[in-house]
Amino acid sequence: MNNLKSKIAVLAYYQVAGGTVGILLLVWLVASTFPVSGTNILLYFFMVVFFGASIWSGWLLIDKRIESGLKLSKINQLLQVFGVAFGGVAYEYVAGVALLPGINLEDGANFTFDFTFSKLELYVNTSKDFVKVKFNLIAIYLVYYIAKLQNIIANEKSLKDPK
Q1: Checking phi first, is residue 3 left (phi over 0); if not, alpha (psi -120 to 50) or beta?
Q2: Is the pLDDT of residue 162 over 70?
Q3: In sequence order, what E strands does the chain have?
Q4: Are 94 and 136 in contact (CB under 8 A)?
Q5: Which range of residues forms the domain containing residue 93?
Q6: 74, 127 Cβ separation under 8 angstroms
Q7: Which tops the pLDDT comparison, 38 or 154?
Q8: What is the structure's pLDDT at 1?
Q9: Domains held by the chain: number
């Protein structure tokens, strides 16, 4: 049981740290681009929501609300699995650390591998005309890891309360 608690604690602090780094980077971004233009306000709002969800999921785990914390953590990680860009629309979200193998089809098929920290990129109707797909290996592993933790907890629950 202590091993399970320590695994949940590591996940909790990772979620909080990833979201906090994202918020701090957002504060730096806003401070360096002041005054903020109208369309960027919407992007900054989304950044706060996404990074805030990461912090909140970690806080739920720290606060011993394990089931809801794991559920929100899994959703948060699922949102980080793919980064895509196609025809002026792009999405890439990372709260924490990411190892991102991918393919860029801008000038032929070029394989890429990126390492990055917390970020959120959203583009809609930009002049950037490229096609990219990335996979976040850390997020993929964490989705698997969280599912394992959820299964362990469900099994322990069923052993304690057989119906």
Answers
A1: alpha
A2: no
A3: 82-86, 89-104, 110-123, 131-135
A4: yes
A5: 2-160
A6: no
A7: 154
A8: 59
A9: 1
